[in-house]
Amino acid sequence: MWTQTFDPLGDLAGSALAAALPVAFLFWALAVRKLPGHVAGACTTAVALAVAILVYRMPVALALASTLQGALYGLFPIGWIVVAAVFLYRIAVESGQFDVIKDSIASVTEDRRLQALLIAFSFGAFLEGAAGFGTPVAISAAMLVGLGFEPLYAAGLCLIANTAPVAFGAIGTPIVVAGQVSGLDDHLISQVVGRQLPLLSVLVPFWLVFTMSGRRGVREVWPAALVSGGSFAVAQWWTSNTLGPLLPDIIASVCSIVCLVAFLRYWKPARVFRFEGEPPRVRATRHGRRAILKAWSPFVVLTLLVGNWGIRPVKALLECATLAIPFPVIDRAVLDPASGKGLPSVFTLNWLSATGTVILIAAIVSMALTRMRPADGARLFGRTLVSLRAPLTTMAAVLALASIGNSSGMTTTMGMALAGTGSLFPLFSPVLGWLGVFMTGSDTSANAVFGRLQAVSAGRIGMSPVLAVAANSSGGVTGKMISPQSIAVACAATGLVGNESELFRFTVRHSVLLLAVVCLITWLQASALAWMLPPGARSGAAAAVVRAAGGPSSAAVGWVCLGTTALLVAGLVLGLGRQKA
Q1: In Å, how far from its chain's centre is CA 150?
Q2: How confident is the model at residue 91 (pLDDT cuts 50, 70, 90)?
Q3: With 60 as the cut, is the pLDDT of residue 120 above it?
Q4: Per-residue DSSP letters for 299-316?
């Protein structure tokens, strides 16, 4: 067994600088050298391996095993989500149904700014809440490109729009994990996050409009941006503070879509915004309700399925088919100095409950709805795989980097250095989450890595541990748009393979500015605005996390949900499948 060390040089500042070398190299490779994503990812992984072996004295066999485990996780489940999402989108395009989707969106609004609010912000937030892990960016970015958005713009806008819902993504998984690792009540953490992120939720739609069309654009469509972000923020605040961390994204996104569509029936901007050089819009073809429902049916099916897959009883039922494989060489071979126990390294093959599988099922149902022949669908799937070779390589390299950073102790070293900022810690607390999401691509993983460190560090300086853990999640959402994993997903969905550096440069300034906003909010809530926090969070007291145990009734609920969904999907296929494609 090899024992982790978090200060290999005997000087925390020096050790943190050594640990930050891979991060600095990745920034340089993407922002300065402009290397393709898969090249930058592979080179950065090599740098991280060198630091782990030479500085942290990690045995070569363990370092290589950790790297391989991370690479496999990058392919499954992350890469699997991207493959299935792009396949689903291409079915809609190949069958001609996406033309109907474009016409139906144009009937609501032809303004590109408002289309971005509907698809990137509101619909993307729904997908984040139901599935997470790259699904919203993959689906919504591809849809914007299909509508006529320039690929780089589509990818960048979707990454920025994905800021507001990330903390409550995948049915609240990041907050639940934060509660588990920190020992704090996840409902209390949800309440604090729900008093931070709504401020960003109001801001992000205006931010998107400003990015697209400047100050003039904001003046022209500010009422719609306010309706979109305001309805989302109010629902997010209310749900997170009353119902807990599971449903804020689902409820808030539905409210945002309904409110914005209803508002646009009675209000139109004085000027319809189109991109420079874009040809004039040809009047959209009018389609019947049945044709529109059929065109949207792939995404209706996707919504039904991911909604069910996220329900705890259903998820528990599907997890029965999961294979947990202890990873050779490294499983329990790395000793955690705090607990004195070997860290488990298990590769989880949740082939049935994985989000990518849900999307693939929706794609297969879509083939039936559009009457695509199985042979044609198989060929399309093969072409999709071939076209995603470079993005999949990038995802494998990036997750390998995250894995070696966690197992060697490099990530913890950087966290400890930031946690040692003393009275300034409330200002830097969100930076830990931002760094964690940049490294791992996941707010859930960032909370798992830094949640306990945040709580302990806050307790030492008299800061509320709940606020610190919440800030880790809230700060992490601003790092999602520059995470190499997210950038690889967006590039794969929009055909920007090899242009990851351009997308990184597009989003990095937005990430830093939004991070500064969260840092300021956290610092104020730790001092002048402490009244914003719930009573339990102000004092630092936190009740134990209470979760209902799943008994026979939970399994019954799972079967009922799956059965009902199957009937709905079957009815949709039989009802719409009769119409000629």
Answers
A1: 22
A2: confident
A3: yes
A4: HHHHHHHHHHHTSHHHHH
512-535 mean pLDDT: 88
Domain count, the chain: 1
Q: Which residue has the higher pLDDT, 579 or 141?
A: 141
DSSP 55: T
Give the C-alpha separation, 409 to 423, whole Å.
25
Angle at CA of residue 436, ends 433 and 438, nearest 5°: 110
Phi/psi zone of residue 389: left (φ > 0), alpha (ψ -120 to 50 degrees), beta? alpha
Whether residue 175 is contained in a domain is answered as no
Instruction: Tell me how far CA of residue 62 lies from CA of 67, 401, 576, in angstroms.
Output: 9, 14, 54
498 or 55: which leads in pLDDT: 55
Q: How many CB atoms lie within 10 A of CB 541?
A: 14
| Structural domain contains residue 92 | yes
Distance CA 1, CA 301 (A): 48
CA distance 117 to 160: 11
Give every CB contact of residue 206 below 8 A, 6+ residues apart in sequence: 218, 222, 225, 226, 229
Q: Across the strands, what pairs with 294?
A: none
Residues 6+ apart with CB under 8 A from 536: 185, 188, 466, 542, 543
* pTM, two decimal places: 0.78
Residue 334 Ramachandran class (φ > 0 left, ψ -120 to 50 alpha, else beta): beta
Confidence bin at 548 (pLDDT 50/70/90): very low
Phi, psi of 57 (to 5 degrees): 55, 35
Handedness of CA 22, 26, 32, 36 (dihedral sign): positive
- Structural domain including 37 reads 12-111+295-577
SS (H, E, C) 81-126: HHHHHHHHHHHHHHCCHHHHHHHHHHHHCCCHHHHHHHHHHHHHHH
More confident residue, 572 or 402: 402
What is the band of 564 on the pLDDT scale with cuts at 50, 70, 90? low
Answer yes or no: is 245 within a domain.
Answer: no
Query: Is 121 within a domain?
Result: no
Q: Tokens 């205006």: give the residue.
A: 206
* Local structure of 478: helix, strand or coil: coil
Structure tokens belonging to residue 515: 């991070």
Phi, psi (5° rounding) for residue 340?
Answer: 75, 15
| Residue 550 pLDDT greater than 60, yes or no | no
What is the per-residue pLDDT for 75? 85
Quick check: 515 and 479 in contact, CB under 8 A? yes
Residues 6+ apart with CB under 8 A from 563: none
Burial status of residue 315 (CB atoms within 10 A of its CB: 0-12, 13-18, 19 or more):
middle
